[in-house]
Amino acid sequence: MKRYMMNDLIFAEQSQRFKVYIPGYLLIEIQKQCILAYPNETGGILAGKYSRELDCAYISELLKAPPGSKSGRTWFLRGIKGIKKKLDRLWNKKTYYLGEWHYHPDNSSTLSNQDIKQMFSISNNPNYKCPEPILFIVGGKQNSWEYSVYVFPQCEKYIHLNLVELHS
């Protein structure tokens, strides 16, 4: 049985078909990246593993914005420099590309039309080897963070996952 810590986050679809687990230490790292980028957007890649039942994605690695990334107050374009090498190294450790994360400074964590287009493009691109990519969006700013998680199955509407309350 997986042991959860107090500041870990779990998001789940109502039917429990999709679940995403984000450990607290990675959440802190994402928040640091957001603070450093403020007032601009930032983002990167989520990597990890799936449960044996393939119903839960366990995020274990965070790749921050690589060199060549560009951003402004309301947009982010993730660069690609060095990404393939990092993902190949993770793949050899049986840690896989699971999706993307990015930050909406001073705004909600609701996805945009551009986010939807980008994620369905990833979902349908065989080079990513990820037919159901995850998008983790951080909104707000330091001391008032907001989080949303979405899954993008191929040829389906995206799915918004809800935060699950953890009880110790």
UniProtKB/TrEMBL annotation:
Keywords: Hydrolase, Metal-binding, Metalloprotease, Protease, Zinc. Transmembrane segments: none annotated. SUPFAM superfamilies: JAB1/MPN domain. GO terms for biological process: proteolysis. Residues 28-143 form the JAB domain. GO terms for molecular function: metal ion binding; metallopeptidase activity. It comes from the Bacteria. Pfam families: Prok-JAB. This is JAB domain-containing protein. The lineage of its organism: Bacteria, Bacillati, Bacillota, Bacilli, Bacillales.
